[in-house]
Amino acid sequence: MSHFRTLAKRCTFLARSSRYMSNIPEDSVYGGPKPQNHNQRVTLTHLRQKHRMGEPITMVTAYDYPSAVHLDSAGIDICLVGDSASMVVHGHDTTLPITLDEMLVHCRAVARGAKRPLLVGDLPFGTYESSTHQAVDTAVRVLKEGGMDAIKLEGGAPSRITAAKAIVEAGIAVIGHVGLTPQAISVLGGFRPQGKNIASAVKVVETAMALQEAGCFSVVLECVPAPVAAAATSALKIPTIGIGAGPFCSGQVLVYHDLLGMMQHPHHAKVTPKFCKQYGQVGDIINKALLAYKEEVTNGSFPGPAHSPYKIGSADTDGFVNELQKLGFDKAASAAAEAAEKIETVKSPGAL
Amino acid sequence: MSLFKTLAKRCSSLARSSRYMSNIPEDTVYGGPKPQNHDQRVTLTHLRQKHRKGEPITMVTAYDYPSAAHLDSAGIDICLVGDSASMVVHGHDTTLPITLDEMLVHCRAVARGAKRPLLVGDLPFGTYESSTHQAVDTAVRVLKEGGMDAIKLEGGAPSRITAAKAIVEAGIAVIGHVGLTPQAISVLGGFRPQGKNIASAVKVVETAMALQEAGCFSVVLECVPAPVAAAATSALKIPTIGIGAGPFCSGQVLVYHDLLGMMQHPHHAKVTPKFCKQYGQVGDVINKALLAYKEEVTNGSFPGPAHSPYKIGSADTGGFVNELQKLGFDKAASAAAEAAEKIETAKSPGAL
Q1: Is A197 in the B-facing interface, judged by CB distances under 8 Å?
Q2: Min CA distance, A184 vs chain B (Å)?
Q3: Can you tell me the distance from the alpha carbon of B227 to that of B231, in angstroms, rounded to the nearest whole number?
Q4: A277 neighbors B292 (Cβ within 8 angstroms)
Q5: Mutation to test the B interface, candidates A279, A346, A352, most B Cβ within 10 Å
Q6: Do A335 and B228 touch (CB under 8 A)?
Q7: Is A36 exposed, middle or buried (0-12, 13-18, 19+ CB in 10 A)?
Q8: How close does chain B come to A220, measured CA to CA in Å?
Q9: Is B206 helix (H, G, I), strand (E, B) or coil?
Q10: Over the stretch A303-318, which tens digit does the pLDDT of each residue have?
Q11: Average pLDDT score over residue span B115-123
Q12: Which residue among the candidates B55, B213, B222, B338 is catalytic per the annotation?
């Protein structure tokens, strides 16, 4: 009887705070009690509510612990561990070279840092295209080993739609991605905007709808004209998240390094996308900071007393100097004695 | 005869521009001519010259392409791919969890970004302690697969000195590391400064000298009192590079994220080392930038016309709207038409 009541209690409790398609259990029963705030992690339910109320969804990419913490602190809705890491973190010219194992390392680091945003991991090039089986296996690894809440995959070919459906059926939430799909630059002939003629524009809308049909909870629209994005957003029940797709989407996404102006080298300024607004000039700040550090080390002002905190007592200092002399290190002994003196002088009133 | 002349020419050319213990060939013979500036990469010779002239050596850590590019632009002498990545990139509490494969990924990304600084890769915990054989194998991988110019290993135990010697004999330049050695926190009982009593202070100097004897070209001194660092620096012929070791070393090193103030979360402010000066407040800038992005997406002002560059011609727009209607997507058709109008209005004089 009491067992039944406990079960009943737990069921209503779970029903009250159920988090739709999230991979974190309600209660870490086996690991012991953890202070889990059930409303902490952004879930599909939260996103659905935002979409229904017409509130734009925010998404930014992150690739490591610090960037994930920054996104969490800023209250960004979705944190995407993008295969753009291949370019902005690893320095390749395309998103193709990054491997699944490398993506999983990024995912884990991000998962450690971001406790609030929904975590989405990209399926990298070559890990989901050859069969539905391969796609499901990869998606499983991204959640199981990468600690993500959902995955994103690119494209709208029939095989891709089938793969998306199978992944959803495996219990993994999927974001679709149409328009410019960077993994396909080989057939696209470069990073070229899509949907600029009738046939292409209609295709964008149709593939977005097919992905919705397959069970995706959202679709990213990349580099398409604004009216095309508006049409897709209107035709879909699920939210669209745009990048270089104009203001009529249900949400927006940008690459971390681009929005922060992380790269200030002239070469990189040329390759910054024109649809991306720089909300900071972090690259400039980094450059100035490094130059200041170099200057201060070179002229000897760093480290000053404030940044040389570790002391050796005067009795020990003397003993140390004696030991060095006994060992025959006379120069070293005087260097130590001089250094101890200099520090004493600086500490006395009048100095610093 | 002409073969002999060619050989003679090549020998003198090599002798003139020999770069001591650098792993980049003078000339990319097999790959065809590349515009290689022989003076471009910082080498052991350059460092030796700086040390002889009393010019402080600058070293900063980097873990990916952008940070490497920043160090290169700022003209930092040495770029260290530190196992501190375990903490600042991956979010662990210590440097222990990072694997060699993960370090190699960091090394490769850095090698792509930094063409000028000397590249040094840390040997991570667990990859060089059990045998000299293991140490040499790991060091080889860091150069062969990681693209580094030299390696750094921690500690001064006899087995460690032996390992350093074997690595140098394998033709790989080595930086030693004494004082606080973070991989040893298990026996040290935490991140505790060393050399604070006579015995410990003498040990710092002696192990540094033993590492020099083994063939190291430099030694890092971490978290020791300034007089102890002064003694070691004086006793050694090779340069010392200090961190939390006062101003009497031959050079200084700091962790990228610490010197830039990358983390602004209160938790991280508490764990920032006290010997590190923050030359920037990058974390603050990032936080403000992300909040501004979130604000503009939420209130609909981003993306404005300046950041919605992709257009569909008006003829195609008309055709697109018709197609959508034919397919039964009436709402989508009107959304597209409306969007096209709004953009036209925004473009006309009076508006942005």
Answers
A1: yes
A2: 19
A3: 6
A4: no
A5: A279
A6: no
A7: middle
A8: 15
A9: helix
A10: 999 999 999 999 999 9
A11: 97
A12: B222
Chain A closest CA to B99's CA: distance in Å?
11
- Mean pLDDT value of segment B87-116: 96
**Burial tier of B309 (Cβ tally within 10 Å: 0-12, 13-18, 19+):** middle
Long-range contacts of B104-108 (CB under 8 A, 24+ apart): B104/B141, B104/B142, B104/B145, B104/B146, B105/A90, B105/A102, B105/A105, B106/B63, B106/B64, B106/B81, B107/B81, B107/B142, B107/B145, B107/B146, B107/B147, B107/B148, B108/A90, B108/B145, B108/B146, B108/B147
Neighbours of A330 (CB within 10 A): 12
Query: In sequence order, which residues have a C-beta less than 8 Å from that of residue A273 and are 6 or more positions away?
Result: A244, A258
Q: Amino acid letter at A251?
A: G
- In this prediction the ipTM stands at 0.85
Lowest mean pLDDT among A3-7, A266-270, A290-294, B110-114: A3-7
Q: Which two tokens stand for residue A351?
A: 């100095």
Write the secondary structure of chain A as one string of H (helix), E (strand) and C (coil): CHHHHHHHHHHHHHHHCCCCCCCCCCCCCCCCCCCCCCCCCCCHHHHHHHHHCCCCEEEEECCCHHHHHHHHHHCCCEEEECCCHHHHCCCCCCCCCCCHHHHHHHHHHHHHHCCCCEEEEECCCCCCCCCHHHHHHHHHHHHHCCCCCEEECCCCCHHHHHHHHHHHHCCCEEEEEEECCHHHHHHHCCCCCCCCCHHHHHHHHHHHHHHHHHCCCEEEEECCCHHHHHHHHHHCCCCEEEECCCCCCCEEEECHHHHCCCCCCHHHHHHCCCCCCCCCCHHHHHHHHHHHHHHHHHCCCCCCHHHCCCCCCHHHHHHHHHHHHHCCCHHHHHHHHHHHHHHHHHHCECEC
Q: Inform me whether the pLDDT recorded for A49 exceeds 90.
A: yes
Looking at the DSSP bridge assignments, the partners of residue B179 are B222
Residues 6+ apart with CB under 8 A from B178: B155, B156, B194, B204, B207, B208, B211, B219, B220, B221, B222, B232
Average pLDDT over residues B303-332: 94
The amino acid that residue A226 corresponds to is A
**Given A66, A224, A335, which is nearest B262 (Cβ)?**
A66
Bridge partners for B60 per DSSP: B79, B254
Is residue A269 less than 8 Å (CB to CB) from chain B? no
C-beta neighbour count of B36 within 10 angstroms: 13
Tokens of residue A1, six digits: 């009887």
CA B8, B13, B14, B16 torsion-angle sign: positive
A222: annotated active-site residue: yes
* Nearest residue of chain A to residue B330 (CA atoms): A235
Of B254, B297, B339, the CB nearest to A248: B339
* Cα-based torsion angle of the residue sequence B256, B260, B262, B268 in order, rounded to the nearest 10 degrees: 90
From A264, A269, A258, select the one nearest A288 (Cα to Cα).
A264
For residue B13, what pLDDT is reported? Answer: 47
Mean pLDDT score, B323-336: 95
Residues B225, A311: C-beta atoms closer than 8 Å: yes
Backbone angles phi, psi at A77, to 5 degrees: -70, -50
Determine the Cα–Cα distance for residues B203 and A39; give it in Å rounded to an integer. Answer: 54
